[in-house]
């Protein structure tokens, strides 16, 4: 987990998850117009080369964190860990959107209901995360950013699984594995820009 690092410990080794979270913040900043494409490319390359917190910090020092505050004291905080490991929509609707923390395995279950798992602004706790989707007489939507590496392992019985992920995946990006079952229901996996365009 990437948290605000103490200023006196810039030599602490950064993990793959730390680098990935910084890259996510840079992608968000570029989408918001805070970074040019050239600046974004340069900083993302620097994030994946970084070995320590001291090398990661300058990449986001001049950017606000996910709460709108500045990140001058180091890489921004991860979202609250109380998001949990499951989202249940039983005759109701459950969703996870915006900046939220995704554990290595997350389950969503929709029974006579629906669910939406939006990973575009999420912080992944592992380089590879598994999203388990179980849609029983219901529907689940999984949204990722264009270019995200997605592996679909869902099974459908009298239901359907649709996958529409656009863009070539960048080397070093996190991988999202979608597993589960659509029984008299559906799972829709697709990519989408923040402005709603596919």
From TrEMBL:
Q: What region holds the DUF1707 domain? A: 13-64
Q: Which Pfam families is this protein grouped with? A: DUF1707
Output the InterPro entries linked to this UniProt entry: DUF1707_SHOCT-like
Q: Where is this region: Disordered?
A: 58-83
Query: PANTHER family, from UniProt?
Result: DUF1707 DOMAIN-CONTAINING PROTEIN (PTHR40763:SF4), MEMBRANE PROTEIN-RELATED (PTHR40763)
Protein name, entry field: DUF1707 domain-containing protein
Record the organism: Actinopolyspora xinjiangensis
């Amino acid at each position: 987990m990437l948290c605000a690092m103490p200023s006196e410990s810039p030599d602490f080794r950064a993990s793959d998850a730390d680098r990935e979270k910084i890259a996510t913040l840079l992608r968000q900043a570029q989408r918001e117009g805070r970074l040019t494409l050239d600046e974004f490319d340069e900083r993302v390359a620097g994030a994946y080369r970084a070995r320590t917190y001291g090398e990661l910090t300058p990449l986001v020092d001049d950017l606000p964190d996910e709460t709108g505050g500045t990140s001058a004291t180091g890489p921004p905080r991860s979202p609250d860990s109380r998001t949990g490991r499951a989202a249940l929509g039983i005759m109701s609707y459950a969703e996870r959107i915006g900046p939220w923390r995704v554990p290595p395995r997350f389950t969503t279950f929709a029974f006579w209901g629906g669910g939406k798992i939006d990973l575009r602004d999420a912080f992944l706790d592992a380089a590879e995360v598994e999203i388990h989707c179980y849609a029983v007489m219901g529907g689940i939507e999984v949204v990722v950013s264009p270019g995200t590496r997605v592996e679909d392992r869902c099974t459908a019985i009298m239901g359907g699984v649709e996958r529409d992920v656009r863009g070539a995946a960048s080397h070093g990006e996190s991988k999202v594995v979608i597993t589960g079952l659509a029984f008299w229901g559906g799972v829709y996996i697709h990519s989408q820009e923040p402005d709603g365009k596919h």
